[in-house]
Amino acid sequence: MAVGILKDSDGKYLLGKRLDSQSWAGWWEFPGGKLETNENPSEALKREIYEELGVTINKYRQWTTRRVIEKNKITILYFFLITSWTGMVEGMEGQKLQWVDFKTYNATKVLPPNQVIQHALKNDLPDIYAITDFQETSSDNFFQALKRQVDDGLRLIQIREKNLTATELEALITRIKIILKHTNVRIIINSNISLAYKYQLDGVHLNSKQLYELKYFPKDLLVGVSCHSAKDLEVAEEKNADFAVLGSVKETLTHANLKPIGWKKFNKLVDNSNIPIYSIGGMTNNDIPSSFNFGAIGIASQRGIWTR
Q1: Whose CA, among 16, 100, 139, 275, lies 20 to 30 Å from 77?
Q2: Which parts of 12-132 fold into alpha helices (H)?
Q3: pLDDT digits (tens, 9 = 90+) for 172-193
Q4: What is the CATH number of the domain that holds 37?
Q5: 56 phi and psi, to 5 degrees?
Q6: Which residues pair with 157 in a beta bridge?
Q7: Number of helices (H) and strands (E), helices first, in the chain?
Q8: With contact defined as beta carbons under 8 Å apart, do 188 and 222 qualify?
Q9: What is the pLDDT of residues 129-160, one digit of tens each?
Q10: What integer is the mean pLDDT of 210-221?
Q11: If phi over 0 gives left and psi between -120 and 50 gives alpha, with beta otherwise, what is residue 222?
Q12: Three-state DSSP state, 250
C-alpha cells in the first residue's frame, strides 16, 4: 500500500476517517491505498491521493516502509511525505477529513499501523540523529563539522562523551549550546537527566540499563532509548519512550566486540514494535535509504556523520 502524509503550511497533518463499510470503521488513518498490477509505490501514491482527495501531488519524498502481518498475510506500507499539491483537499469517497496537530491531538483511534508514524511526527523526528564524537577529533575539526552539519540541515544531536570529566562535559555542553542558539537543532544529553534540566536541554538519551531501572521516564523531555533486543523495544514502548535506537546493524568501533544484527534482523524487530526507531552501527548518509526500507525513521551516527 502507498500511504500519503500530507502536511500543510501550518504544520498540521491530514487524517481520514474510515467508512462504516470498511474494516476498522470509525478509525482515523493517513490516506492511501493498494498498489495495482504493475504499479510502483510512487505511481500508486499519486493515483490514490487524486482518487481519495481530488488533488495532484507536486512535491513528495518516500519515507519509511512498514510491514504489517495480519492473519498470516504481509502488507507492505510505503509511507510518503507530501508537502505540496494542486487543488482543494476533499473527501472524494465520502470520508470525513481533519487536519491535526499531533503535539496536541488525542490519537487513541489512529489505525495501529499508522501510530508509529504519528509518534515520529508528533516529536518532529528528523532523518538523521547525530551523536557527538568530540574525543576522536580535534576540537577545531569537531566544531567545524558541527557548523557544516547545521548548514546541511542537522536538527537533532546527542552529546555522548563518556570519557570527559564533569567539568569538561559541561564546558562542551555550554559551547554547543552557544553554537546552536539561533538554530532549530535540538540537543539531547546521554544518560544524565540532571544535566538535561540544569542546561535546559531538549531531551535525554537513556542507556539500556536505565531503560529497566527507571520506573518512569521524564515527561517534559524528549526521551530516546538504546535498545538491542525485542524485549528492550517492548519495555521502551511500555514506558512511553519517544524513540529508540536499535543496533548495531553493522560493525562499529563503539561496540567492537558485539556481533552486528544486520538489516534482516533489524527489520524483524522493527516490524514488531510501535515506537519510532533509528538504525545505528556503522551508519553513514548512504544508509538512509536502507534504513527507510527496513522500517526505520532514519539513522543514528556517531562517526560517519562528521566526515565527508
Answers
A1: 100
A2: 41-53, 112-122
A3: 999 999 999 999 999 999 999 9
A4: 3.90.79.10
A5: -105, 125
A6: 130, 187
A7: 9, 15
A8: yes
A9: 999 999 888 888 999 999 999 999 999 999 99
A10: 97
A11: beta
A12: coil
Residue 14 CA to residue 102 CA, distance in Å, equals 10
Is 107 among the domain residues? Answer: no
Task: Check whether 256 has a pLDDT greater than 70.
Answer: no
Residue 171 inside a domain? The answer is: yes
Residue 122 belongs to a domain: no
Number of domains in the chain: 2
Percent of the chain with pLDDT over 90: 89
85 and 9 co-located in one domain: yes
Show the domain range for 193: 128-306
Give the count of beta carbons closer than 10 Å to the beta carbon of residue 152: 11
CA distances from 24 to 19, 28, 49, 111, 131 (A): 8, 9, 20, 8, 40
Q: Longest C-alpha distance within the chain, in Å?
A: 63
Taking the C-alpha atoms of residue 179 and residue 182, their distance in angstroms, rounded to an integer, is: 8
Residues 25, 70 within the same domain: yes
Please give the average per-residue pLDDT across 252-263, as a whole number.
Answer: 81
Rg (CA), the chain: 20
Q: Is residue 18 part of a domain?
A: yes
Claim to verify: residue 258 and residue 156 sit in the same structural domain:
yes
Return the C-alpha cell found at 79: 509511507
Instruction: For residue 293, give the H/E element and its range.
Output: helix 288-293
What are 152's three cell numbers? 546541511
